[in-house]
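I trust your eye. Have a critical look at both lines of this record:
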Amino acid sequence: MPVEFVDFEDARQRGGLRMVVVPRVPSPWGEAAKGILHVKRVAYVAVRLDQANAGMREWTGDSSGPVAIYEGERPRSGWAEILLLAERLAPTPALLPGDPAERAWMLGLCHELCGEMGLGWCARNAGIHTSLSGQGGFPEGIARYLGQKYGYRPEEAALYTPVEKEGM
């Protein structure tokens, strides 16, 4: 199902599902949100994030992406919020188990991958640390921006980098 990109003002006036996405950069969280909607065959229009647009920031409640907005409902920017919205809009195929214990386990596993201090979060902060330590990676200006935005703290670098275990 092809995705239609529309400008911000057009998206704000439309109904249905609209999603603000980061342009020109393959954001892991944005790609995951698009993937969820693709698998569930949920139609949406995409809007390229413009961090300088105060109206967009006011509409989405965020200066980042992805942000999903369905009809007149509140914006959803967290991975779990977007997943649960997609489950509601298209119950099949189900991405979460119906059994409460299995669902809780699955959401916990997802948090370990997608949530704060999860695998994706730590990988990003490890990249920031590598860049700010002069070992390559992001250009310094981008590393500083991302570090401030996502809570990078150099004193926590050991939390962001994988620990080598014996025999691995």
Q: What stands out?
A: Helices lie at 8-13, 28-40, 54-60, 79-89, 100-114, 119-132, 140-149, 157-160. The beta strands are 4-5, 17-21, 45-48, 67-70. The first strand starts at residue 4 and ends at 5.
